[in-house]
Amino acid sequence: MRITDAIITARGGSKRIPRKNVLDICGIPLIAWSIIQAKTAKQITRVWVSTDDDEIADVSEHFGARVIRRPEWMWDDKYGASVPLLHALRHIRDMGLAMDLFVHMFPTNPLRRPGDLNALLGAYQNVPKPEAPIMLTSNHGIPMHHLAVWWDRGNGIAEMGFMDKTGTALLYAGGCAAWQVDDFFHMERLVSDWYGGERRTDKGTDERMNAGMEGYPPKKLTVIAWTPMQWWQIHKLDLPSEIEIVQKLMEQYILKGKGVDVYGSYQERT
Q1: Which InterPro entries is this protein grouped with (predicted)?
Q2: Measured between alpha carbons, how far is residue 56 from residues 30, 31, 66, 139 in Å?
């Protein structure tokens, strides 16, 4: 049987929304929604939370996740999500636990319906696998029937960058992605060589990518198996102004007065 783990990366030092990952969202801590969603997904074997924070660790264990504590050097918020993710994958491997696939989840995206994770993994498993060296990953996407991208050139001036009216342009949504474990390790080695160091920072990565993505390995060596999401699932928790929006969308479109039981009921049906 294929073993698929969910790995949720969550640090305690969020700045724009202090203590964001344990903030009450629709009755429970934010991170708990991702744990519940993963635990009720039929295709997921184990759920892990990588964190540097005692309260996040306690909440995660309370809701049934296994906790991976980050080393002290990783507590610095300048490191991007791939750094603690690599640490978590190595930690699981060093424990002698087998894993074929994993789903990396951001807790800041709680607007996942029951079934979204199973659909994500189904998309990964059902599409034809590309020939090496091309690697396959899986994401949720929102089809855009009319998409225009403009580049801000400063002083109130913008230039047309991209326009699509074919319905084939997709917006990334959902805050999670599925990878085959060996493929991810291989891709990270390539990205590290491109970047110039494994402990890469968010700022440094942004600077390299803004300078040009032509040499960026994922652009050249990955294709994405995608599954659709709804327009409202683009929202996530990054700013204080988004807290009320996310809660209202979650209640209106997912919970509908039933709370966490929505996910338990889905698990029983599947």
Answers
A1: CMP-NeuNAc_synthase, Cytidylyl_trans, Nucleotide-diphossugar_trans
A2: 10, 8, 11, 26
Instruction: Count the neighbouring beta carbons within 10 Å of the beta carbon of residue 231.
Output: 11
Match 């998409």 to its residue by tokens: 147
**Fold observed for domain 4-269:** Spore Coat Polysaccharide Biosynthesis Protein SpsA; Chain A (3.90.550)
Contact 67, 57 (CB under 8 A): yes
AA letter at 171 = L
User: Among candidates 48, 51, 42, which has minimal Cα distance to 21?
Assistant: 51
CB distance 113 to 120 below 8 Å: no
128 Rama sector, left if φ>0, alpha if ψ -120 to 50, beta otherwise: beta
pTM of the model: 0.91
In the three-class reduction of DSSP (H, G, I as helix; E, B as strand; rest coil), residue 237 is classed as: coil
What per-residue string of b and e applies to 28-41 under the rule 16 or more CB within 10 Å gives b? bbbbbbbbbbbbbb
Question: Based on C-alpha coordinates, what's the Rg of the chain?
Answer: 19
Tell me which H or E stretch contains 69: strand 66-69
The domain spans of the chain are 4-269
Pairing of strands 24-25, 222-228: unpaired
